[in-house]
Amino acid sequence: MKFKHVLIAVCLTFTAVVSPAQRTKLYTSNGFLSSCLINDVYQDCKGYIWIATEYGLNRFDGTRFTTFKHLPGNALSLRDNYVRSIQEDTQGRLLVGCITGLMEFDRATEEFHDIPLIYDDRPVLAHVSVIARLSNGEVRPVTEYFFMTRRPTLPVACIIFHVRRVVFL
């Protein structure tokens, strides 16, 4: 009986030593990422890993990377290569915050669409540093200057929290 326990212990030890552990791979900007300066990482509802960098947006499907960058003259590309934040709203729309504004990624066409940020009835080019998820599941872009709680295409409250005061639109 004791021999049986020793044999099982030896077999388990040998299996643990010989069998490969979980393999890791290092992804760099050398053929994989658009930049090693990473600002945000997000896994969407489809399972893709999105990586916001200072030189584009990367999508990882578990096997390969797809890089999205600003293409001059193409209004449906990223607004800017400096991507700061990524978040999905409650409807599964992927929102991308750049240093020059907010965009929505259309999964069907793989195109980006501007989301206008309005302040004092005027569109502003705001540096979207974070897209925050509130406890109720709603998302809000946070900029260098104010915390936006309304965009025309989302059914949410119409308030902008300014640094010093609350402004109702």
The succession of helices and strands, N to C, reads HEEEEEEEEEEEEEEE
Average residue-wise pLDDT: 76
Number of strands: 15
Global geometry: globular
Summarize this entry quickly:
The chain is mainly beta. It is built from 1 helix and 15 strands.
Describe the protein:
The protein has 169 residues and is mainly beta. It is 10% helix and 41% strand. It contains 1 helix and 15 strands. It has a 4-stranded antiparallel sheet with strand order 1-2-3-4, with no helix packed on it. A hairpin with a 2-residue loop joins strand 2 (49-53) and strand 3. The termini are far apart. Mean pLDDT is 76; it is low at 146-169.
Describe the protein's topology.
Elements (H helix, E strand, L loop, with lengths): L1 H17 L19 E6 L5 E5 L2 E5 L4 E4 L14 E6 L5 E5 L2 E6 L4 E5 L1 E3 L2 E3 L3 E6 L5 E5 L2 E3 L10 E4 L3 E3 L1
Antiparallel strand pairs: 1-2, 2-3, 3-4, 5-6, 6-7, 7-8, 9-10, 11-12, 13-14, 14-15
